[in-house]
Hints:
The protein is α/β, with parallel strands linked by helices. It contains 10 helices and 12 strands. The chain has 3 domains: 7-15 and 201-290, Cobalt-precorrin-4 Transmethylase, domain 1, CATH 3.40.1010; 18-100, Rossmann fold (3-Layer(aba) Sandwich); 104-195, Cobalt-precorrin-4 Transmethylase, domain 1 (3-Layer(aba) Sandwich), CATH 3.40.1010. It has helices at residues 18-32, 47-55, 63-68, 83-91, 102-114, 132-139, 174-186, 201-215, 229-241, 275-290, and strands at 7-10, 37-40, 59-61, 73-76, 95-98, 121-126, 146-148, 163-168, 193-195, 219-223, 245-248, 264-269. The protein starts with 6 loop residues before the first strand and ends with a helix.
Amino acid sequence: MSENNVKIEIDSSAGFCQGVVNAIKIAENELKKGEKIYCLGDIVHNKTEVERLKSLGLITISYEEFEKLSNCNVIVRAHGEPPSTFETAKKRDITIINATCPIVFKLQKEIKEATSTLKSSEIIIVGKKGHPEVLGLLGQIDGKARVISSVKDLESISIFKKNLIIFSQTTMDRNVYAEIIKEICLKAECRRISITNSICKHVLKRKDSIIDFAKTHQVVLFVSSSNSSNGMYLFNICKAENQNTYLLNSAQEIDFSLLSNAKTIGISGATSTPMWLMEEVAERVKGYLEGK
Ligand code: SF4
């Protein structure tokens, strides 16, 4: 409780997932060695954490920049990469420090193995088009899969004639995945549909806990970058449960007018939101309330 009896609580189930914790730990350990370390894309979909690691020396690079580098160390983040990235590294004498999340790695392997039945089947990946994880999954099978992001994407397809093997991105919304599968089944003339529930358990568990958290606070400050799929997924769930849920990137973005009559303020975030950032938000809210 703060001085004027407003309860401020940080969501204990929020914060980095294990995949992101591992990737950051790997980056920090490499940086300690004092060598120049590059990371292919933002190590996590969170601007402030990317800035923190940049201040420690981590250099984030684009794919164009990666293709011009040679003889250096590059981190592959938790989302994973297609095999072409590892081939480029080999050709250019780049040492890859592989921080692919083991869950994503397992999914890549499963998708690759599914190609043995590809002749008579079609692979569908349900996920966000262009998302790095989806690109990494597609790369395992030379792009030979259809990516479906929403039920709308299915409108132009009248019938699925081949047998289907369906996977999802690990951070997919389970309701959207279920809706898409239902729609696919309605359009399927095939004999076999294999469905893999590849949504990460960490993401699934967070859905229930964020609903409870949203219910028990009058205002929720949800800390996440808008380019985090998982962040937007959880933010929308939280907002649907509690209309007084607000998205912010950092403590500097708090709009204090939104907190005026609240007696309970919750602070939550995505699996890509660092705990230190949520603590910073809590401290700033506390400071504001004490100064009122
Ligand atoms: S959300 Fe799950 S699958 Fe994705 S990086 Fe985190 S632990 Fe791995």
